[in-house]
Every structure is written in C-alpha cells, then in structure tokens.
C-alpha cells in the first residue's frame, strides 16, 4: 500500500492473519498449503501478479511469494487501495463469527467484502487500516525461564530433586562405582501439581510469569529431570541411549574432551553421587575435567 511502484517478497512462516492467529477453513488441504493460498490471495487482492517460488534453504517452510508487477493501471490505485481496506476489515468482522465459509478465490472478493460491510466501515476505507491493531513490541521479552537468575533456578532444581529423592528412598537400583556395586537412589516420580504444592508461594508466583512455568524450568534442566506425561522423574543417565558415533576414531578422541563443558549435577548434589563413572558421564566430575 506504500506506493504503486512497490514490489514485495514474502516467506510465509507462522500462521497469522491481519489481527491474530490464522484459523483453518479447509480440511482437504494441509495447514501450510492453506496458509500459503491465503497469503497469495492477499497479494492478488492487493492488485499484484503473484509469483510463487521455492527457496533452496534448509527449512520445511521455504515457499515464497514475489509481487513485481501490478494487475491494474496507475490511475486505479486509489480505488484498489479502498478495496484493500474493505478486504482487511471484512476479514476482521468475518473472523468474529462462527461457521462462516470463506472463498478460495480472490475474484470478486473485494466487491463481496464491500457489500457486506456496514456503512461506517465502508466509509472509513483509506483512513483506517485495521481498527484495534496492536503490533508486537520491538524488543520481545524472553519468558521461557532462560532469563531467570541462575541462583533462583539452582534453588528450585535442588528443592525439586530433594523432594523426589526423599519421596521414596527404597526406590534404588545397583550402580557400579569404581568396581564396587552400590545402590543408587532414583527417587520417586511426582506430578507437576504435587511438586508445585511443595514450593513456596513466592517461587510459584515468579514461575507463573514465565511461559510454561514450572514445567518449562524443569525441562530446561535436562541433565537432572525428565518430564513425561505430566510427571517429573530424576533422570537416570544409565538408561540414556549413547549418541551415534559416525566419526572416525581419531576425531572422536580429539573431540572427547570438548564434551565436558558443564559440571555434573549428580556428582555434586546427589547423595549417592553420579550413577555413571567419570569416563562414561557426559558431564565433568570436578573442575579438573572441564574444558
């Protein structure tokens, strides 16, 4: 809408409409294909000859659209701009209804949109782009628990781990440490609700301001916890499948020391230590093993 000479390139990714999440309307198409058709339709309604291309990039969303030429002469630019406004407003009013069928084609869509608009909305064409539209902030706040203070996260991790370990001390299994067999406490599994009941109100209030809250924090600490079907477990690294080793033996030996960039939580905090010997554990048993 900036000018008649405007050209555009767009790589559709997230499924959003003009004012919110894009709502599917056709079950015969995949969500991606349906959304691509919608984006192409917008370009056609805006008077572009829309071209589709597939980029050579490592992504599943690589279909792009290019608008280089117009389908109408310059004198009709003001009229088309009015139809664009009506199209946007019509989509907003339609999306508030339930069970409305949407046209798959752009032919005649602008005329149909204008006929269904209230007089006030139709008269506002050219002056209002989208009433109530609120763009996102320039700086998006990270709310996936990654920006929480490290001390706070460590305290929550230690509290939850101690809760699981003390819930069922009898739930233990043999662990080989230095040639001798010892019992290693795996702890009990508790639901997220049960875990939350043992945390302080201040902690829960702080976690609720993050997306996913407690569950996200525990999943972020993959070394210590495993969250399955809403239940929290102490991760047993003896049951983890070893990483595929397709590299030559020489390269594996050279890169082996680079793996240990973090201290082993179990070696430091677990009452029975780590369930794996130092040579098998992907984490450092002491600062001397850090890269």
TrEMBL record:
Subcellular localization: Cytoplasm
UniProt entry keywords in alphabetical sequence: Cytoplasm, Metal-binding, Methyltransferase, S-adenosyl-L-methionine, Transferase, tRNA processing, Zinc, Zinc-finger
Zn finger residue spans: C3H1-type: 258-288
Gene Ontology CC annotations of this record: cytoplasm
Keyword Lyase in annotation: no
Its EC number(s): 2.1.1.211
GO biological process: tRNA methylation
Keyword match Zinc-finger: yes
Sample GO molecular function, one term: tRNA(Ser) (uridine(44)-2'-O-)-methyltransferase activity
Catalyzed reaction equations: uridine(44) in tRNA(Ser) + S-adenosyl-L-methionine = 2'-O-methyluridine(44) in tRNA(Ser) + S-adenosyl-L-homocysteine + H(+)
C3H1-type domain ranges (all copies): 258-288
PROSITE patterns: ZF_C3H1
Chief localisation class: cytoplasm
Described purpose of this protein according to its UniProt entry: Adenosyl-L-methionine (AdoMet)-dependent tRNA (uracil-O(2)-)-methyltransferase.
PANTHER family for this protein: TRNA (URACIL-O(2)-)-METHYLTRANSFERASE-RELATED
Family: Belongs to the TRM44 family.
Name listed for the protein in its UniProt record: tRNA (uracil-O(2)-)-methyltransferase
Organism, as annotated: Indicator maculatus
